[in-house]
Every structure is written in structure tokens, then in C-alpha cells.
């Protein structure tokens, strides 16, 4: 037990190595990992090492900031701005929370948006090209959902900022060319509306009452007296038939709905359900006013109803879902930047990267051996450095981070800096005379550890800006380097100290 207490850092290193082996080689171990595809590891590769397309496109939009819009004015301002600019209401978003007005149409200039707002009595502080951060986040979420539904295991979506300040939405998809990826982004879903009601024997049935072509207009998410909601208008040609079905299925009276998405047969009440690609995106009952319109036959004269949600976030998600996956703002593909890598070339890069890594390990091993000419010192150093790389690979597999060439450069940098630190430890301990006791060893080790700790802090501080500036491949290199340095300082360097202490003290016994 005392041996384990004295060598707990080595035990911690072993635990991390075993955990990394599980993350790397056990199918399904990393959370969110795609189904096994026959590969030996759970590592995910970016397009540089697997082939595919990376597409970066700026959102189309013009944004007025500091418009001082109240919550009660949002809906009316959307309608009035769309009328003044001759655009669809769907292409206008007004947010009282952020005091912004956005127009998602390419040919609307900043001067036109400012003039339209001033004509409505608003004086924005600034009007600029581009969209708000909230809209970019919704773009990422919607596109990510499209990629996830298309079963692209290592596809990814993010926002990046160019040096000139332009914000881009970056989409990466393996095994897709540019046109396929663009088609996927623009792809529309299938929206259906069902009546969900109990039969006489108590079981629930679901009858389709509307399909995608039956919608004439999907309104913007807005706050109403009944709560956050989305207005839906159906075509006159189907309004009467829809009204008759609502009466037939018992929605001519006020109905509450408690829909159980995990087990629909355990639901209560009667529900109107909307689905996107088969997934339920809304389930709600019928209020008294709407039920009366169904019963009296007045609904068909003005076929509009509200879908009410619990909060504005859900209302905005419902709005996008009912628009069949329509992007919150279109992407400007004319100014897009894309990179396509053929799978055969990517496979060659993967092979060359493996060979480069092996050569780096051999070169480092040779340099270490020539430095000390003592296998008892050099071999543990090499094994410790390799375990650091193995743990880093396990981390990458666990978080399902797609590897590209820049990340592999980070691995090589981690090998070099790791061995440098181990050499500092070995030199500080071995080059200052004989070590009589463990206390002497610990004093020398602490002195060396302060040096490598300061070097690690410097590396992390130097690399940190690269992780947040959206500089593409440089960000990946910085992330891998920082994580590798942290693993070294927390796990592998202390473990090497324990290993070296045992070797030296036993040699002197």
C-alpha cells in the first residue's frame, strides 16, 4: 500500500493510458460517436485526411442596431418594414431583447434599411452589413441538424471570423463535393400536421389533416396575449376540408393536450401535432375561440390559427421547423470559399502523416539516447513521451474531434516539447552530483518542475489567442498543443519524476 502511495503519479498515468485505450478502441465508447464503420479506432478525420468538402459562406443580411424597439412593437414593425422594403415578412426579424432589426435580403442596402426605420419613427445607432450573433447561432444549429439527419458522422458546423471582420458559417462534410454540400444545406424538409385523439376504446390514433403544400403563410415567432406563438395560414382551397376534419375529430370544443413524446399512447387530451421529417416539433390543444370558429364554420373564411409555445426560444424553433428547415438567413454562396479533397489524396496524406510521426519518434529517441548513453534513463523518457501522445489521441477520440493535418502538426509539437521537458527534469536531477536520499531527489525535481511549469504557462498563453480568433487550421494546431501541454504538466511529467526516482535510488542500493 505504501508503494502505491509513493508512486500514485505513475498509477494515475496508467489509469489515463487505459482510459485512452478504451476511448480509442472500444466501439461506441466515445459519447456521440457514429456507428462502427470498420475502422480500427474511434478517431474521426477531417476532410484533409478523409476527403470531402469544406464550405465557408457569409450570411446574407443587413442589421440595424440600437433601434429601441419594445416587445409590443415587434410584430407591427416586421409588417411595416417588410412593406416598405417590398420583402417577405419572413425575411425581417425584429428583436426587442437585442434592440436590432435584421433584413435577410441581398439587395437591401444599409441606407434603405435606415430610411425605412426612420420613416417608422425609429433612429438606429448603427446600420451594418451582416447578421446578429443570435442569427448566426441559429444558422449553425439548423445546418448542424441537417447534417446530423443526413448521417454525416464527422460533419461539423461552426462560425469563423476573417481578419477583415466578416463572419462566415463554416460547414465541413466528408465524402461530399461542393454541389452536394450546398444542396444539403438548401434542402427542405417535409412538414405534416396530424389530429391526435382517443378512440372509444381509449387508444390514440393519428390522422393527417395538413401537408406541406397546404400552408399559405408561416408567420414570425411573436408574443401574443396567449403566450409566444407562431401564426399559420392555410390555403383557401383546403380550409373547409380542414375545418370539417377538426369537427369530426372532436376539436370543435376547447381541448387540452398533454402529449407524451416518448410514449404517445400515454398521452391525455386531444392534440394538434406538427412534424418535421417525422419528428414532432409541436403538440398543442385548441382554445375556446378557435374551437368556436370550427364549430360555426367561420374558420374557413379566415383560415389562420396560432401555435402557442412555452417560450420565445421554442417559438422561433417552431417557426423554422414549419418553414421546413429554412435557414434563418440565407448564405451568400457567390462569396463562399470552398475546399474539396479527393479521398485518394486524403488517404495518401494520412499515410504520410503516420510515417512522419514514426520518424519524429525515432529521431527523438535517437537524440535522447545519444544525450545520455544510458538506456535506464532514455527508455523511460521515450515511453513517457509516447504515453503522452497516446493519452492525447484518447482525448481526441473521446470528444470526437476531427483530425486534420494541422492537428497532426500539433501532435509532433507535443512530442518535441514533451521530450524537452523530460530532458530538463533528467538534467536537473542527474547533472548536480550524487543523490543520497529521496528528499534530495524531490528538491531537485521541484526545481526542474518550476522551470517546465513556467514554460508550459508561456506556451498556453501564446497559443490561447489562436483558439478564439477563428483562424481555421491554426486554431486546431493551438488546441492540440494546449491540451498536450496540460496532459504533460498534470500527468506525464510528474509520473516520469517518480519513475526516475525509483531507478536512481534502486541503482544506489
Structural class: alpha+beta
Major sheet summary line = 4 strands, antiparallel
How are the strands of the biggest sheet laid out side by side? Answer: 6-7-1-17
Mean pLDDT: 80
Number of domains as seen in the coordinates: 3
Could you give the distance between the termini?
A: 21 Å
Description:
The protein is of the alpha+beta class and 509 residues long. The protein has 3 domains: 216 residues, Multidrug efflux transporter AcrB transmembrane domain (Multidrug efflux transporter AcrB transmembrane fold); 68 residues, Alpha-Beta Plaits (2-Layer Sandwich); 132 residues, Gyrase A, domain 2, CATH 3.30.1360. It contains 15 helices and 17 strands. The strands form 5 sheets. The chain has a 4-stranded antiparallel beta sheet. Strands 3-4-2-5 form a 4-stranded antiparallel beta sheet, with helices on one face. A hairpin with a 2-residue loop joins β10 and β11. α2 packs across α15 and α13 runs antiparallel to α14. The two termini are 21 Å apart.
